Amino acid sequence: MKRTIARRVTSLLAASLLAAGVVLTTSASAQAVQCGSGNFCVWTDANFTGLKIEHSGDDHWWEGDMAWHDSSWANHGISGPGVKDHVKVYSARELLGSVTICLAPGQEVGYSANANDKGASHTWTMGC
Fold first, then answer.
1. 53 CB contacts (<8 Å, ≥6 apart)?
2. CATH number 2.60.20.10 is the correct assignment for the domain at 40-125
3. Which of these, 35, 49, 53, 84, could form a disulfide with 41 (CB 3.0-4.6 Å)?
4. What is this structure's pTM?
5. What are the distances in angstroms from CA 117 to CA 62, 68, 90?
6. pLDDT per position in the chain (128 positions), as tens?
């Protein structure tokens, strides 16, 4: 009888640890990139490295070393009815030129040859 109880306790403990491990794995992968909730982030180098800017709103003029030096992007915007949750990046300042990349909410792009070193401003929109 003691062995049966011990086996049940061990099985329950193992199942609990497995369940906790799954939750931890899911939580860690849900936001793999360091970019605050509600923000759009841009890095100068591929795979979310180098200098980073982080924005909760539009930026019509990327300052400093960021303009035309963007290589990875993350949209951690918040979605909801009527919320501008997509981000369009433009090839020129003041939201002019062509759209180099557009990110849906939750989308993270470690590198895009089509958009690399081409962004200079961005805006939050309802879609791509």
1. 41, 42, 59, 62, 66
2. yes
3. 35
4. 0.75
5. 12, 4, 11
6. 444 443 443 343 343 333 333 222 222 334 579 999 999 999 999 999 999 999 999 999 998 889 999 999 999 999 999 999 999 999 999 999 999 999 999 999 999 999 999 999 999 999 99
